[in-house]
Amino acid sequence: MRMDHHMQIANSAFATRCNYLRGLKSLILHYEKLPEECTADEVKAYLVHERETCNLSSSTINLRVCSLKYYYRHVAGRLDLVVKIPNPRIQKYDTEVLTSEELKKLFQCCRDMRQKLILTALFDTGIRVRELLRVRLSDFDKQHQSITIRNSKGKRTRIVYYGSRLRIVLKQYCKYLGYLPKGVLIESYKDPSKSLTLRGVQFIVKQTVKRSGLKKRIHPHTFRHSFAVHYLNCGGSIFSLQRLLGHQNITTTLHYLKYASLPEGKQISVLDEMP
User: Fold this and answer.
1) What is the torsion angle, in degrees rounded to the nearest 10, for the CA atoms of residue 233, residue 236, residue 239 and residue 242?
2) Cα separation, 182 vs 271, whole angstroms
3) What is the dihedral of CA 169, 171, 176, 180, to 10 degrees?
4) Beta strand 146-149 with 158-161: parallel, antiparallel or unpaired?
5) Is 259 noted as a catalytic residue in this protein?
């Protein structure tokens, strides 16, 4: 497909390419014709149908709009349609942060060591789900208790750290498998030669939350949010947190200060502190 080739040349992330192509395919199947053959009114009617009939969220609708605008701007050359398609207002939710007790409850509700390793690793390191699914045993540095995260968001590589509890769970996981994984660490249940999918992790988290009885809106990324807030509460630096999370802009990391419980500290006169 022309758009996929264009996005590959533009070095777009694999996940972005998949999401954009999915949105474009949806419009093609809806009208059974090419997107450039649709009028602006037809595109708007399609988006209304997706929202009201398919009950898609505002963020998903926004993703569909972005995919169509990308196609019209860079592939079809239909700038007239780009300006006529409005971007929806995205509904924003407060960031959910799990307490220590809630985390313990979720860990206890895991059905096997694979599930426990996934939840433990997501919280202890703060890495993204896609990053975890690419991690291999060879990425672990036992001496420094660190993990090298390769080809993360923005095609960057960074180092994150893990604690003794994750090390214990990792050993239990390998014992549970009966061997040391030579490929990816989190293997698929059906085919050990392949990685567990993103959908698979989402399903595991959903079912674990259901068994725990917790009523919060919890998804895999919630563990990353929780790591960030707990890290700050434990005295971690906001700049160190930025590096661990792999944020390019410190503004993204500063968002977590809103949820952290930091001591105010004493009032200081910088003049009086001078020798």
Assistant:
1) -70
2) 60
3) 130
4) antiparallel
5) no
**Tokens (6 digits) for 11:** 């070095």
Q: Is 224 a catalytic residue?
A: yes
Tell which residue, 193, 173, 183, 184, has the closest CA to residue 129: 184
**pTM score, two decimals?**
0.79
Sequence length of the chain is: 275
C-alpha closest to that of 100 among 263, 265, 261, 238: 261
Q: Which helix (H) or strand (E) holds 42?
A: helix 40-52
> 224, 225, 230, 231: which one is catalytic?
224
Q: Tell me the domains of the chain and their CATH numbers.
A: 2-84 (1.10.150.130), 100-258 (1.10.443.10)
User: Taking each helix axis from N to C terminus, what angle separates 113-125 and 198-212, rounded to the nearest 10 degrees?
Assistant: 100
Mean pLDDT of successive 10-residue stretches along the chain, which has 275 residues: 83 84 92 91 91 85 91 89 83 83 97 97 96 96 95 86 96 96 94 94 97 95 96 93 95 93 71 69
Q: 6 catalytic, yes or no?
A: no
